[in-house]
# Entry
Amino acid sequence: MENLHDKRKVYEKSQLIESEIKQNPIEQFRDWFLDANESPEVSEANAMAVSTVEEDGCPRTRMVLLKAYTHEGFIFYTNYNSRKGKAIENNHKACLHFFWPNLERQIIIKADLEKVAENLSDGYFHSRPKGSQLGALVSPQSQPIPNREFLEKKLKDLENEYENVEVPRPEHWGGYLAKPYEIEFWQGRPNRLHDRIIYTLEGLDWKISRLAP
Ligand SMILES: Cc1cc2nc3c(=O)[nH]c(=O)nc-3n(C[C@H](O)[C@H](O)[C@H](O)COP(=O)(O)O)c2cc1C
# Structure
């Protein structure tokens, strides 16, 4: 057995205290997201883990990129026929997770997922580089495929087909809006006495509590 018992880090970069936080968690998210996005030590601040629950009752997690956030929630784009898309059809609940190690911060968001309006998906799809647009057409995301050549051949064919033509957004590709009802902010602190502030939606109001680390 290789044990990692002595592998630990002292968290001491910052603090999260009630007198300094925002009353609205999306505004608090914004403060922390901007810190992460501006930090040269964080390479993809908008990368987040999204867990969905599959039919066997087990959660499954994968990374996606946050592409927008508003007072309504958090938006990411994917293939609606993918494994996550199928899980979401059966259970629209998700957990979103951000971890920015260099800032010693994590955010855990419980949310209800819904598809975004088609015009929003169209707008984002067409803003992507053409290669990424074609990639969405090429890939039957989460399906078994015979080999890598299958993808490369399909890409070549589509590159020819759409050489001077706008690539249409496939119907099965688009965004999800994750509407939060609970958001926890975690700031690492010395001696494992970390700060945990949790916002819970009660009716239209966000209730703020501190959790023990
Ligand atoms: C940093 C990172 C960002 C990713 N962003 C996305 C994304 O925005 N949308 C997406 O569909 N897949 C994205 N992926 C790939 C997913 O993790 C995953 O492999 C894919 O969506 C299929 O997941 P599923 O089979 O669980 O549906 C990303 C992977 C990584 C590592």
Notes: The chain has a mean pLDDT of 97. The chain has one domain: 18-128+171-210.
